[in-house]
Amino acid sequence: LEATEWLEEFIKTEYHGAVVVVSHDRYFLDKVVTKIAELRNNKLREYNGNYTKYLFLRERELLVQQREYEHQQEEIEHNLDFYRRYHAGQRSKEAQGRLKLLERMEIIEKPQGDDKKIKLSFTTDVRGGDDVLQLRNVSKIYDNKTLFHDLTMDLYRKDRLGIIGPNGVGKTTLLRMIMGQEKPTTGTVRLGYNLRIGYYDQELSGLNKNNTVLDEIWQLVPKGDPGEIRSYLGRFLFSGDDVFKKIGDLSGGEQSRVALAKLLLQNANFLILDEPTNHLDINSKEVLEEALSDFPATMIIVSHDRYFLDKIVNKILFMERDKTHLWIGNYTDYQEYLIEKRAQEIAKAAEERKRIAEERKRAAIEAQRQLRQAEKDKKKKKKKSPPKRWIGA
């Protein structure tokens, strides 16, 4: 994340050439680009502005195209109906004219939106307690290396915590401690009442690479109907013979979709997600965002995807080398706070420089005044001195 932020700042403030970026990082695109080129349905379209502006312009364009398409379809149907009714009667000449009009008409294609999207909907019938997680003075040390120390935090029902930090500071280790898979070096970790945890592992280690896609889901619902399971997998874009592919032969994005399909079946009321968007395309990220936003559960999400965090979380734990701090709000809220804080620091520094300059100016004026006064005093003293007398021999 630090490297991405550095690149953003470099492109915005230091690099003055043209830049072409291929990226799924929507926050980065919002910060850096001034034009979006979208490749959709084998066509390239250009939109002026950043990613957020592109979304608005594309949606407006699709709505206009849809209205134009529907209007033309009504016109076509009206003229065809006229031709069918009158092509053999007294108005046959007019009917033939309508037919020629249709033949010359430039047909508007039906607007096509995005490519196929996965379909997600999280549900649970398990109601946990209001106190979900309590950390008290938690520390973790590996081989005399402190990952984090004295971490104290509370998480309540429906809280959505994002965790941000560079690699190697213990983000995944903290998740493992919360799930009871590791013990803290010091401190206590307490989970609330009646929690059912759903975990998404960024390494996708919970998938059996030798299983087929169908078998991987079937083992969670062994009494499930094969047709229903295949229909369920269709929501994750696995259709036809795709369900018989081995997990190990799938791409990273396809394996991520299988992991999400398994996660939805866990009936969890406490989601712990470790880099859930790593292998997902933008369409899938947006579907996941919408599904999580609509799901009234407690969540902890480790992610470098700032746009994703902005959409989901209401708290952020920043983990740095040997220190942590908790922020109430999303990532953009925190960035705005930092900008305001920096502006205040700059203003304070400017005031301090101004004060020092004024003090130096006053000191210089006072020094000049004292110098002039000393010269005046010297002249007065010289005038008051008695004249020298010569004493002859």
Describe how the helices and strands are arranged:
Blueprint: H1 2-13, H2 26-32, E1 35-40, E2 43-48, H3 51-86, H4 92-104, E3 131-142, E4 145-156, E5 160-164, H5 171-178, E6 186-191, E7 197-200, H6 213-218, H7 226-234, H8 252-264, E8 270-274, H9 282-293, E9 298-302, H10 306-312, E10 315-320, E11 323-328, H11 331-384
Parallel strand pairs: 5-9, 5-10, 7-8, 8-9
Antiparallel strand pairs: 1-2, 3-4, 3-6, 10-11
What does this structure look like?
- The protein is of the alpha/beta class and 393 residues long.
- It folds into 3 domains: 2-104, Rossmann fold, CATH 3.40.50.300; 131-326, P-loop containing nucleotide triphosphate hydrolases (Rossmann fold), CATH 3.40.50.300; 330-379.
- Helices cover 45% and strands 19% of the residues.
- It has helices at residues 2-13, 26-32, 51-86, 92-104, 171-178, 213-218, 226-234, 252-264, 282-293, 306-312, 331-384, and strands at residues 35-40, 43-48, 131-142, 145-156, 160-164, 186-191, 197-200, 270-274, 298-302, 315-320, 323-328.
- The strands form 3 sheets. Strands 7-8-9-5-10-11 form a 6-stranded mixed beta sheet, sandwiched between helices.
- Helix 3 (51-86) runs antiparallel to helix 4.
- It is flat.
